[in-house]
Amino acid sequence: MWKWIWVLGLAGVILAGCAGAPSPAGEMAAATQEVTALPGEPQGDETGVAVTTQGSGTKNETVTPQPLMTMRITSETPSAPPATATASPAPSLTPTVTPTLAPDFWMDLPVVPTVSERAREIYRRGQQLGQKADAFAKVGDCEATTTWFLGMFDGPEGGYDLAQYVALQETIDAFAGSWERNSVAVKAGYTATSVMTALWADPEQCESGETPMACEYRLQRPAFALIMLGSNNAARPERFEPQLRALLDETIAQGIVPVLSTKADNLEGDHSINAAIARLAVEYDIPLWNFWAAVQPLPRHGLDPDGAHLTLGPPDFDDPYAMKTAWTVRNLTALQVLDAVRRGVEE
């Protein structure tokens, strides 16, 4: 019963928490790159994930919980380019070779990534710079808000049920303190421009002229960053990729391993934002958390009838009904991704 009482409370909190988005007009005045939010979408995006071992394309109304995601790229999908050795102690911002990719290649990418040698190079560089191996940062909009995203893993005993995923408790313990942290790089309505615009930085925690993302990185000193953006860029999707590229360059330069994510929605209408996210993940040879592929087997692909908000469910990974909801499996899959990345950089 506690599980669904939690859901009812969560519904109200999400509606309230996503209501205070930054003003698109204000952001345009503050940034050199104009960004306009979708009409009727001032409160930010609602992307999500779900547990699945299938690729794209099929809709399955019944989802059976499975062990750790093991989806792999199909044989037709080009693989990411290998890391190129360099004499510089810092990893280069971009790889030297980019493969030719089909427009929809990202639809077959796995939900949980395999960690590349390049990601390990970034991690090792970060350790030299003093980044904390036991910390990760969240960069995103209201869907990255601690109240309903990952915060329960720092909460009281009984606040979640790992069920057959009990092995993930080791990663929960390893990142203690990061789950419930209220990131200054997370706010309703944030876009790829917002997190790199000083106007939106918290004046009580951030230094003068510091952007939200730079502020969070300074405060948290994370070895990893979950970067969850895109839905609020849906009105101007062509501007998203250069913004995300600049964000990645800054993250990597600090020795922080970026973990990109696709989104569940298609508010831009042509999936171009997800394609850009995945394309940059391949180009930079960094981990990708493929939200979109994960939600495909869920009822309505994990989305409410509005096509933007995620279906609600508690953090109970032993409840078959909950495992048909996007919020439940979003939290589980996020945990799986962080577990894979944490272990992968040490190999």
Provide the domain count. Answer: 1
**Cα-atom Rg, whole angstroms?**
19 Å
| The CATH C-level class name | Alpha Beta
Q: What is the level-2 CATH architecture name? A: 3-Layer(aba) Sandwich
Strand content: 5-15%
Mean pLDDT, as a whole number?
A: 81
Structural description of this entry:
This protein is an alpha/beta fold. The protein contains nine helices and four strands, in the order αααβααβαβαβαα. The chain has a single domain (41-344), classed as SGNH hydrolase (Rossmann fold), CATH 3.40.50. α6 (240-253) runs parallel beside α7. The chain is globular and about 45 Å long.
Summary, kept brief:
The protein has one domain: 3-Layer(aba) Sandwich (Rossmann fold). Helix content is 29%, strand content 7%.
Throw out a few tags for this protein.
globular; Rossmann fold; alpha/beta; 347 residues; 4 strands; four-stranded parallel beta sheet
